[in-house]
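Query structure, 222 tokens:
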């Protein structure tokens, strides 16, 4: 009887341990596959995820969203800095608005399809239209807007001009952790033409260095 109990205990222990090991492997696999491709520390910082033509949004990327008063959503983690930046701009007589924030993969696909359709309606072949559209629209899965960390910021034109907003942001956004993501003369590195409205949250530390050295996110991460 005692022997049977010991054997039973042994089998139960193996079963329990086995289950734990399997679960642990699954969990580890899920983390490494779903979010990060690399063990580099800078890549493990959510603020520094690189998304461009050669780096897609990590699979199963998860985020929590906060909805702004105009219905646009942003990653909740950047909301306090964004709010502070807008409050400070307004106190200086500059009135920015967020024109674009988080986009779902499907929304990005629709934007791309609309652009392709507009070129087709101008008489281009489907192949040509696709190629041309890629110069204007980031491929679905390769748009920073799918991270919820990128914003297109324009002016509330009843109170400020776009130029006023862009120049205020160019000089001040880094203090709140935002960078001008596609600077002038950076097209050969970022792959995107100058966009004075597109800001990306990277945190204040990285933003200060990127602003001071006048470099791109790609160069900062190199
Ligand atoms: Zn944008």
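Result returned for the query:
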């Amino acid at each position: 009887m005692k022997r049977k109990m010991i054997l039973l205990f042994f089998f139960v222990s193996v079963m329990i341990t086995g289950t734990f090991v399997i679960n642990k492997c699954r969990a580890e696999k899920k983390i490494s596959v779903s979010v990060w491709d690399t063990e580099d520390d800078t890549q493990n910082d959510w603020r520094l995820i690189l998304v461009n033509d050669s780096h897609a949004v990590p699979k199963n990327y998860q985020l929590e969203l906060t909805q702004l008063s105009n219905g646009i959503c942003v990653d909740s983690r950047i909301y306090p800095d964004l709010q502070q930046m807008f409050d400070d701009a307004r106190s200086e007589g500059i009135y920015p608005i967020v024109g674009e924030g988080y986009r779902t993969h499907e929304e990005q696909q629709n934007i791309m399809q609309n652009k392709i359709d507009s070129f087709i309606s101008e008489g281009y072949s489907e192949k040509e239209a696709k190629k041309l559209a890629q110069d204007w629209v980031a491929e679905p899965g390769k748009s920073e807007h799918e991270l919820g960390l990128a914003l297109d910021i324009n002016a509330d034109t009843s109170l400020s001009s776009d130029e006023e907003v862009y120049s205020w942001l160019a000089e001040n956004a880094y203090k709140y952790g935002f960078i001008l993501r596609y600077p002038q003369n950076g097209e050969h590195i970022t792959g995107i033409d100058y966009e004075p409205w597109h800001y990306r949250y990277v945190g204040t530390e990285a933003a200060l260095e990127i602003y001071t050295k006048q470099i791109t996110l790609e160069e900062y991460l190199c």
